[in-house]
Design goal:
alpha/beta, Restriction Endonuclease, FokI Restriction Endonuclease, Chain A, domain 1, three-stranded antiparallel beta sheet, five-stranded mixed beta sheet, globular
Length: 562
C-alpha cells in the first residue's frame, strides 16, 4: 500500500515505456509465480532480469530489492496486472496483456480503472478528501473537450484535477491560459514558468506557510528547491501520462507542438468510454472487492465489445459486406479489423519511404534535427531515432530498418528495445548499425559504451558481413570517444574482433546528409563504405582519440565534395 501525500495527481513512471513491462511481467510469471514477494525473491528477480536479452540498465546492484519493487510494485501492480499478496500471481488482466492478442485493448481497460484513492493508494490524514478521481479517464475527457491537450497544460493544470467534480474549474483554467498566452508569444517559456509557479504556490500554500518545504533526500528547505522538486515531479508524471495514453492506440502526439489528441477515426470509441465509464472511484475501503474489479479483464465495457459496432466499423473501412461478416464471432471480427489496420500501417510506412528516397523530405528532416537540438520536441530520443532512420533511408539505397515501434498511423511510438541496434542498414557487401542517443556527459559513456559494442558484435555474427557502426549524439563525450578509439584497436572475441565504431556529433551527421543532398546523383552504398573505411584508416594513423576526432571532421567535410 502506498500513501498519497501530495495534492496533485501522479502517474506511474516505472517502467517509462509501457510495452517494456510486458517481458518483465512474463519473466515474473514464468519463474516466480506462487512464491512470496519478499526481499529474497526480489533480489532473484533482478538478477534474472539483468541476464535477460531485453533488459536495459544495471538492475541497481547495490539495492536490488528496491529495484525489483520499483519495476513491479508500480505500474504492473497499480494497473492490476499482477497480484503480489498473499503470493505472486498473474491476474486475468495480466494474462490478457502478456499472452493475449490485443495488449493495447486490455491496457486501455486497466488505465480506465486506475483510481485515487484506492486500497492500493490511501490518503494521509492531512490531505483526506483531496482525491476522488479516475485520472486517465478525466485526462481523456479534457483532451476530447478541448480537442487537444499540451504538455504544459497537463503539467500545470490537469495534474491539479484531484477530484472529478473540479473538472469544469480546471477546464476553464486551461481555456484562460490559452487566451492569455497569445500575448506572450515572444516570451512563452517565461510565461509558462510563472504560471506553473503560481499554481504550485496556490496548491501548496499550507505547506509553504507552515515552512514544510523540505523535500525527500535533501536537507535544503528553500522555497526554490521545493518548487524545483515539484516541477520535476509534475514533468515526469506528465511524460508518463502521455506515454501510457499513447500506448492505447487512441491518441496521436504532435512532437513539435508537444500536445496530445485523439485520432479522428477513434472518436466513436472515445465518446463511448466517456459516456459509459463511471467517473466515481469504487471499493475504496474494500481491498477484496477492489481486486475482483481491478483484475477483471472484461471491464469496463468498450465500444469494440459490441459485435454490431465492430461490424459497422469494418464495413466503413473495407469492402466487406454484411453477409460476409455475419456469423463471425467478436474475436474473428477483431482479427479482421487488426489485419486491416496492420496493412494500412504498412502502406503508410511504404509511402513515407518513397517520399524520403526522393529527397522530398530533406528540408523537413534537417528542420527536425534543429528542433531536436534546441529542445523543441517532446520525446527527443524517440524523434532522434525516427529522424535518423529517415535520414539513412534518404542517404542511400540499402535496406534500412528502424527498430523503434510505429503506431497504426505510421508515426513513431516508442524507441528500440535494448537488445538491438536502433537502426540496421544492410547492403550487398556490408552492414551498418546506427545507434543514437540524447545522453551527454558521463551518462553517455556509462549507458551506451557497452551496449553499442555488443550490438555491433551481434550484428557481425548474425550477418557474417563486414560490419560498421555509427554512434550519433548531439555531443560526443570524451570518455565515449576514448572508449571506441580503444575498442577499434583491440581484438575482443566477444565483439567479433576489432570493432569499427565511428562516433559522430549530430551536426557532423547533418553535414553528411547535406553533402548527399548536394551531390550530383544519389549516393551509392559504395560511397557510404568509402567514407566508413576512410574514417577507420584515419584512426590507424591518429596519434590519439582527439587527433582521430579532428580527422573524422575532415572526412565529413570532404565526403562527396571532391
Amino acid at each position: 500500500m502506498a500513501y498519497l501525500k501530495n495534492k496533485s495527481l501522479f502517474f506511474t513512471t516505472s517502467p517509462r515505456t509501457p510495452s517494456k513491462m510486458i517481458p518483465e511481467i512474463r519473466l515474473l510469471d514464468e519463474y516466480f509465480a506462487g512464491r512470496k514477494w519478499n526481499r529474497q525473491s526480489q533480489i532473484e528477480f533482478i538478477d534474472l532480469l539483468g541476464k535477460s536479452d531485453f533488459f536495459e540498465g544495471n538492475g541497481s546492484p547495490n539495492n536490488k530489492d528496491f529495484s525489483a519493487r520499483d519495476r513491479i510494485n508500480r505500474a504492473p501492480k497499480a494497473l492490476g496486472f499482477v497480484d503480489l499478496s498473499p503470493q505472486i500471481e498473474l491476474t486475468d488482466a495480466g494474462k490478457a496483456l502478456i499472452y493475449g492478442k490485443r495488449p493495447q485493448e486490455i491496457f486501455l481497460r486497466q488505465l480506465l480503472k486506475f483510481q485515487l484513492p484506492s486500497p492500493y493508494h490511501v490518503e494521509r490524514s492531512n490531505i483526506a478528501g483531496t482525491f476522488f478521481i479516475k485520472p486517465y479517464l478525466e485526462i481523456m475527457r479534457l483532451i476530447r473537450d478541448l480537442e487537444s491537450l499540451s504538455f504544459d497544460e497537463l503539467k500545470i493544470f490537469a495534474l491539479m484535477l484531484t477530484d472529478y467534480r473540479q473538472y469544469d474549474t480546471i477546464k476553464s483554467a486551461i481555456l484562460d491560459f490559452r487566451a492569455e498566452k497569445e500575448a506572450y508569444k515572444g516570451n512563452y517559456k517565461k510565461f509558462v514558468n510563472e504560471k506553473w509557479t503560481d499554481v504550485l504556490l496556490k496548491i501548496y500554500s499550507d505547506d509553504v506557510g507552515a515552512g514544510k518545504t523540505k523535500t525527500r533526500e535533501t536537507t535544503d528547505r528553500s522555497l526554490k528547491k521545493f518548487l524545483d522538486t515539484k516541477k520535476s515531479n509534475t514533468r515526469d508524471y506528465t511524460d508518463a501520462c502521455f506515454r501510457y495514453l499513447r500506448y492505447t492506440g487512441l491518441v496521436s502526439i504532435s512532437h513539435r507542438n508537444r500536445s496530445i489528441s485523439f485520432y479522428t477515426d477513434r472518436l466513436k470509441e472515445v465518446d463511448f468510454i466517456l459516456k459509459e465509464t463511471d467517473r466515481k472511484p469504487v471499493f475504496v475501503d474494500d481491498i477484496n472487492k477492489y481486486k475482483q474489479y481491478l483484475f477483471n479483464a472484461t471491464i469496463p465495457v468498450l465500444y469494440g465489445d459490441d459485435i454490431k459496432n465492430v461490424t459497422d466499423h469494418l464495413m466503413r473501412i473495407s469492402n466487406y459486406t454484411q453477409r460476409q461478416l455475419s456469423g463471425k464471432s467478436i474475436e474473428e471480427l477483431k482479427d479482421i479489423r487488426d489485419a486491416i489496420a496492420a496493412e494500412h500501417k504498412e502502406a503508410v510506412i511504404k509511402a513515407q519511404i518513397t517520399a524520403i528516397k526522393s529527397y522530398a523530405l530533406y528540408s523537413e528532416i534537417i528542420d527536425t534535427y534543429n528542433e531536436i537540438i534546441s529542445d523543441g520536441y517532446y520525446d527527443a530520443p524517440l524523434m532522434l531515432e525516427y529522424n535518423t532512420w529517415r535520414a539513412m533511408t534518404m542517404l542511400d539505397g540499402g535496406s534500412i530498418k528502424g527498430n523503434f515501434k510505429f503506431d497504426d498511423a505510421g508515426q513513431p511510438l516508442s524507441t528500440a528495445a535494448g537488445n538491438m541496434p536502433d537502426i540496421e542498414c544492410e547492403y550487398d557487401d556490408f552492414v551498418l548499425s546506427v545507434e543514437v542517443t540524447m545522453q551527454n556527459g558521463q551518462r553517455q559513456y556509462e549507458s551506451e559504451g557497452e551496449p553499442v559494442a555488443r550490438h555491433f558484435g551481434q550484428m557481425k555474427r548474425r550477418t557474417g558481413k563486414e560490419t560498421y557502426c555509427l554512434f550519433i549524439a548531439p555531443t560526443i563525450n570524451k570518455a565515449s570517444l576514448a572508449h571506441f578509439f580503444v575498442l577499434n584497436k583491440t581484438e575482443i572475441s566477444y565483439y567479433g574482433g576489432k570493432t569499427k565504431i565511428i562516433p559522430l556529433e549530430l551536426d557532423q551527421f547533418m553535414r553528411l546528409v547535406d553533402n548527399s543532398y548536394n551531390y550530383y546523383t544519389q549516393p551509392t552504398p559504395q560511397n557510404i563504405q568509402q567514407f566508413l573505411d576512410e574514417v577507420m584508416r584515419q584512426e590507424e594513423i591518429a596519434v590519439n582519440e582527439n587527433d582521430w576526432n579532428d580527422k573524422i571532421q575532415n572526412c565529413v567535410t570532404q565526403w562527396l565534395t571532391t
